[in-house]
Design brief:
Elements lengths: L2 H6 L3 H21 L5 H21 L9 H8 L3 H9 L8 H4 L1 H11 L14 E2 L7 H9 L5 H10 L3 E5 L2 E4 L9 H26 L23 H24 L59
């Protein structure tokens, strides 16, 4: 089909949908860059795609039998890959070497017998370049030829995992490498839980778009006209306002709690957050309205992970 005809035949909502997904993915991928490689993300995404497609088909009473062909139609994934994923479910609890090339290099250096001293069982010092047991060849084995040994070396020296003995020899100081530690991890855990809850709310409301009683409350308020000189004061005021509202919400929530948690009790709550777009931000959505709509959809999530994290900062 000619390009002009293909574009003209496209449903107008397609671009809105892809734009919305693009906006959601960008900040998510920004968090992953340097913490999780693209291949690791794709492997995870592929498994989730298949699981969610299977879930969607099971929810339709008309689907008496779920075939790999029907899964391929929904996901766009080759049936051979679907078979492979279904035969070996994705392991969520991965080690750092599965996520980051730097950690893979350190892991092989620290654990493989090839790189250990026979007498001490400790990792040996390595020449940076050359044939045989060198840091250069270690990087090639662990990461491949797309990344140079010098790039990995500079990163691991800066993080304190390895150090130079002389200008062409390095030694391992620590085999543990993962950029997200301590407070950063806690903030990520809390933030991603809140993001999950909001996306489940959106999914619920789309699924019940014709049934207002089943939709959950989702509200936003904003201004497009905060002057720079009032920016910091505005942030501080809103933070104080949200904290007071959250304190009040706890008092309202406990009124409905059962004395004892059981397998039948429901997890439910609210979330509040501050957001902003700086002037000329390339992330500002083009369809972000100047005014509030007359009617807001009702939203709040109806399902949570099996393990609901404790996220009081």
């Amino acid at each position: 089909m000619p390009e002009s005809e293909r574009v003209n035949s496209q449903h107008p909502n397609v671009s809105r949908f892809t734009s919305a997904i693009y906006r959601v993915l960008r900040p998510l991928i920004r968090l992953m860059v340097g913490n999780m490689t693209y291949p690791a993300f794709i492997s995870m995404a592929k498994s989730i795609y298949i699981e969610e497609a299977e879930r969607k088909l099971k929810q339709d009473p008309a689907n008496k039998r779920i075939t790999k062909s029907s899964l391929a139609l929904l996901t766009g994934i080759d049936t051979r890959q679907i078979s492979q994923v279904m035969s070996a479910p994705y392991a969520i609890k991965l080690d750092a070497p599965d996520l980051l090339p730097e950690a893979s290099v350190l892991g092989q250096w620290a654990t493989e017998s090839t790189y250990k001293d026979n007498a001490t069982e400790k990792p040996i010092q390595l020449p940076v370049y050359g044939r045989g047991l060198t840091f250069q060849n270690l990087v090639t084995r662990a990461v491949g030829r797309n990344v140079t040994a010098q790039t990995v070396l500079d990163r691991l020296v800066s993080t304190g995992n390895i150090e130079y003995i002389d200008e062409n020899t390095v030694r391992l100081l620590s085999p543990f490498y993962f950029p997200l530690t301590g407070a950063k991890y806690e903030l990520l855990d809390v933030g991603m839980t809140a993001t999950t809850n909001l996306l489940l709310t959106v999914d619920n409301n789309i699924s019940h778009r014709d049934d207002t009683d089943q939709r959950f409350v989702q509200q936003q308020r904003w201004s497009r006209n905060i002057p720079p000189e009032k920016h910091e004061a505005f942030k501080a005021h809103i933070a104080d306002f949200i904290n007071k509202q959250l304190d009040e919400s706890v008092n309202e929530i406990v009124k409905y709690e059962a004395p004892v948690q059981t397998s039948e009790t429901i997890t439910a709550g609210i979330g509040m957050y501050y957001f902003e777009y700086l002037p000329n931000s390339d992330e500002f959505p083009n369809e972000f309205p100047n005014e509030f709509p007359n009617e807001f959809p009702n939203e709040f999530p109806n399902e949570f992970p099996n393990e609901f994290p404790n996220e009081n900062p």
